[in-house]
## 1
Amino acid sequence: MRYEVPETVDAAVALLAAANGSARILAGGTDLLVQLRAGLVEPDVVVDIKKISQTRQVTAQDGGFRVGAAVTGAELDEHPDLKKNWPGVVEAAELIGSTQVQGRATMGGNLCNASPAADSVPALIAAAATCQIAGPDGERTVPVESICTGPGKTILGTGEFVVSLILPARPPHSGDAYLRFIPRTEMDIAVVGVGVSLTLDGAGQCIAARVGLGAVAATALLVTEAADALVGTAVDEGAVEKMQQAVRAACRPIDDKRGTIAYRTQVSGVLAGRACRIALERAGEH
Amino acid sequence: MAAVEKIIENRIDDKTTDSKALKWVGTRAPRPDGVDKVTGRAKFGADTHLPNMLIGKVLRSPHAHARILSIDPSAALALPGVKAVVTRDDFPDQPAGAVQPAGEMIINYRDMTRNIMAREKALYEGHAVAAVAAVSDRVAGQALTLIKVDYEVLPHVIDVDEAMGADAPLIQEDLITEGMDPAPEKPSNIAKRVEFGHGDIETGFSQAQVVIEREFKTRPVHQGYIEPHACLASFSEDGQADLWCSTQGHYVARGHCATLLGMDVSKLRVTSSEIGGGFGGKTVVYLEPVALALSRKACQPVKMVMTRDEVFRASGPACGTSMQVRIGATREGKITAGDATLKFQAGAFAGSPVPAAAMCAFAPYDLEHVRSVGYDVLVNRPKVAAYRAPGAPLGEYAVESVIDELAKALELDPIEFRLLNAVREGVDSSYGPKFGPIGCIQTLEAARDHDHYQTPLGSGQGRGVATGYWFNIGGQTSATLNLSEDGSVALVVGTPDIGGSRASLAMMTAETLGIELDKVRPLVGDTSALGYNMLTGGSRVTFAGGIAVVGAAEDLIRQLCERAALTWDLPLDDVEWIEGEARPANGRAGSEAPMSMAEIAKDMAKSGGPIVGRHSTNAQGAGPSFGTHVVDVDVDRETGRVSVTRYTVVQDAGKAIHPGYVEGQYQGGAVQGIGWALNEEYIYDEKGKIENAGFLDYRVPVCSDVPMIDTVIVEVPNPEHPYGVRGVGETPIVPPLAAISNAVENALGIRFTELPMSPPRVLAAIEQAG
């Protein structure tokens, strides 16, 4: 196994393309190193993208943010403006692993590891985040909800990798939130995760909403029916209840050691309601 | 008895309470192993290395139950770098009935040799089938894939009630239940029936106005020690061997290994490492005899370390159970009868702690009519190992749940109801012996009067109480005090230090000798250093080890006085030992300047040579310990998650030699109980394979899952110990299961009769209750 540390996007793409599918990308490594040690993956080459400056920076862009794929959870937390604009996204990223893991774990890795239970992904979906992908044929931009196609599977082709995540500009009266359910209080994997993002008008009517749902299907889901239940309402209890029903209807979970179908479906609605109330409160503050 | 009873609240500043006469006992002295542990210098099981060391790995059964038709290691042996392969053929079979007590469990060597290496059948997923030693981890791993094993897969059984069924697959085809009269004619999975009690329960129930009967079910749990099993074995060509391992008892491990390998016990020297948790799970051997067998074949040292996955699949666990409990009481709150039937999963071999569970179940109560029946049942799971008060938390979970329900039915405060029925000195215990001085009532009263119990609950919260009991044990113990030429002493003991015993044993030594604590260096010697020592378990070490070190100190004092008498030309009777020095006594008091230990040591060559204090004992008179726990919980009604918001442990220590360590034991037991009650369980698939063999999905509590655990140390001295010590390590895990279940009932009005009370189970119950 070779370990490569390219310093440019082009060099990384060249290495990945040359490896012909047997390469793995190393960002924080909090999933990859575990998989390597457990013998689950045996790549010919590991391409560390952390020396590529674009992957390690958070920059303002079009009123929003471009977040490098290899920016760590701890760095997201320390960014002066990011948490103010997208508290739900940052909180979701901060739930990944322990304090020590936060010094390594990245949203790019969390997304591309393609676990249905990845914490940052439902929050990114709710935020309408997009991915800037580099590859042999140049760059393309893809919505976060389109990246994963199943557990461990993404749309990324040979030679491609996610360079940055783009969080859009925040209109006034906007708020987002992410909640997950775990049996413990930390150091665990989501049984259900829900991200909600809302924008209100000056009168408190919801004019835009997005709901992302994790750990209840093969990939994290964008639940448009849930968002539709909120838009045009004052996000009153009746609207929230309809949103919860839409969330539960969208669930396609499995029975496994982490939770039953019935439990996941029920709790997804509970968390959606709670996340929605937090997002609403935050929208009222801005 | 003029017992001095007192209670220590957990404040850091109570260096001494009433112990004016005691300089070290009862203080929070620095721990002698502390610096090495925080600097990383301490050597644990995997930290010993030798030149030419090989790496050993185990091939494990992928099947829950399968006959092993053949094992062909030839391809593995042909792989370059592979130095040895061992299978069932490398271990002599053991005679039936080769049974011996070891700690709190019984060892049957015919079973043990089959557990460390499968013979006729693989009896659980993860059962060792073969092992290799190779030049590297990688080669050893590759070699495992080349060993060809032909299995005939058999039907398996995981659940204890199913295993007791008439048509259950038989795990041992020739097993006839012990303890039945008449003995059954047909084999079954029921290894043993035990019964304890006295009186006539039907008479008792006829006197009851309220009777409550419930059935309970619990899942197996793992001890959850952080350090995996690890050892290094080195066999020489002449048949002498060394073993380094993480164990609770290196003498016991030596005996097991020598028996399994068919060698003289004294040809094997075992050195115990620092231990990263054991809780009973490191009282037996798994890798050790295998590493020795590989080393014997390869004539090279062999290191073996389990992965976490192997720890879960092949070591421990504690039993899963199915239990029925019936208790009756009068309207006034006097319990008239108690009856329990406890069915415990033993794993693939007999020997669950169901006898101890049956003995402890009703131990807190003074009952005229009581019976507890236990069944030891084989299932296709790893053989259970001891886990902190083995069995007791389970039986008491069932009994204390019903006690709580009875208190509610009788509209009595749960602590007052217990006090109305609690045992005291002189009462016949539910399992037989008459109690000596005990602190059951004192812990209940201290819990009742504690600020926690007096503080009103928050909205939606629930509070639970439970009382628990554990016997504690004594046993064979040796200690040596080697006097150095400067008057300091090396204290050598043979019990691995799990819960602070180097500190407590050094403190009792310094106290008895009357010297400074830092003049005593406590060490755990290897098996050649001392006479026999039973393992660290049964909460026995501060009790039995205390008797041994005080005896060794007294032996040393006697010799020091002899040397002073010789120097002063006085009869021995005219010399006394006071405050760490020899003084002329009686009519000769003041006739000579006192001689300190340093002065006697300096001239010991002239006065007769090296001075060594020794004591060996089979310590008797362990003091049982009662504890009462109070716990508050919050339940998220929408997700079913239970949060523990406040927790107080009250327990009788007899005498807390080192209160900080005693509190640590109380807190640790409570935390393990919280995990057991709320989230810990093995999850099996339909093929009998474990689905959660790791700490991600086997959920022990993390720090943020538990509140600060308050502790109250009650001290009702044990008259059989020089400083009054009872064991404290095990009782703390006995009450939590029931206390938390009772708290959840108090919060929700729903009685749970299954553990763990995991969020899906709690939410389903809430929804069902509407």
Note: Residues 90 and 181 of chain A are 17 Å apart (CA to CA).
## 2
Amino acid sequence: MKSDSRLEKVLTAGRFAVTAELGPPQNANAEAVRKKAQHCIGNVEAANITDNQTAIVRMSSIAAAAIAISCGVEPVVQMVCRDRNRIAMQSDILGAAALGVKNILCLSGDHQTFGNHPQAANVYDIDSMQLIAMVKAMRDDKIFLSGDPIKEHEPRLFIGAVENPFADPFEYRVMRLAKKVEAGADFIQTQCVFDIEKFAKWMETVVAEGLHERTYIMAGLTPVRSHRALQYMKTQVAGMSIPDELIKRMEAVEDKEQQKEEGVKICLEMIDHVRNIKGVSGIHLMPIGWESITPVILKRADLLPRPEV
Amino acid sequence: MIVADRKPLDEILNSIKDCDRIMLAGCGGCVTICFSGGAKAVQLLASQIKIARKKQDRPIEIIEVTPERQCEYEFIDALAEDLKSVDAVLSIACGVGVQAMTERHPDTVTLPGLNTKFMGYPVEHALWDERCAGCGDCVLEWTGGICPIARCAKKLLNGPCGGSADGVCEVDKELPCAWQLIYDRLKKIGKLDNLKKIREPKDWRTSTNAGQRKIKFEEAML
């Protein structure tokens, strides 16, 4: 065991794993985190605590993770390269591990121009690849990036990374994934899958390269509440692939509540699809602002109760 | 070359509002090429300032000069005599020129009339693009001659982020994704293997993170 995390145990046991996203609030309300954590307790292996996603200031992911732990939810602390240099990141990695965090997800981070402080300087002292390698070296080689030893209590974290099968250059995406695996990514969560065809094609290459045997691939899925949400993602979020048929299908449902139900159905179909794609080890649900739907979807997808490990 | 852009006229007028006589100093180097600080720009700005001040009922006298380069002592030393009669210098050289003037003529206040932007070149007539961030440790050898430090919004060293789509950067649809360019270039010259290697974290001490940088050319020292 690299980390003793539940997520690691489920994946190494060969069980289909489930994670879900938990976005911290834009305030200091611990209760808001506890409330969202309720949707995750016992329903997922671990909950991803986002790190100032879309570059909007929110409660620190590590602080929110500590609150999640107190509720009995295992967190995956997301860490982006946008806001901290290597000194602050290593310090926060030690702090997170000390608070009981066992999973980390390494990302470059949404650019600050998308957020509510576009005037901010970005850091990008290291990139996501180098962050993965840094966490691995801290865990396995017990050294800091400087080469100085961590004499005791090295942070034992299960290391995650992300990949976007829908971004360009498409041919390079698998090579980049291979680099992340080489750097030390134990698991991969993908960008939201809506374009199942493109995802399957990408997975074929992943499997051909044998990468699914060196890391665990979890397909990212987002249940959407309306055709507008889909339309927004298609036009406003870079690197998203959303087939027009899906938007038309949502649009064809006039009643708002029925549209939500259609969104859930689409998500359930996606779960079915990805479960049958070779090399997919689990799913990562990202119900942006709709965390309460997580248990509903998992129940209807027959993914509850979660396995004992 | 260094590319600079003129400050808004109101900001310039405000900075010289207490002056009755100024020297407007251009530069015959980079900023002449990018139209913001050459002899013609000096002429144009001088008339704009004079008209604005006349409207305010407070005319201003302007000595117009454009030394060959404002960043070299030998070209700005000659301005000393004229400087005695002015309240300030308004420099439309890059930030280096403004500082050279300040250091060489400490009894006169030199004010900036330009915003110095970047190192780049005109990719077409009257359009300049940034190309170099002066990081002090050039990576162009393995990136196919395209700089990810200057041209990727996240300064990534290990390939494109998830926001690269249709060759465009997620930050601005007018910007090409530097990593798409690098990928295409390396593919063309048969060097895609360059992208397989995990690039180590950069040592930023050679950049702007370890204090002001200096270069000494020993062979030419007097």
Note: Chain A has eleven helices and eight strands.
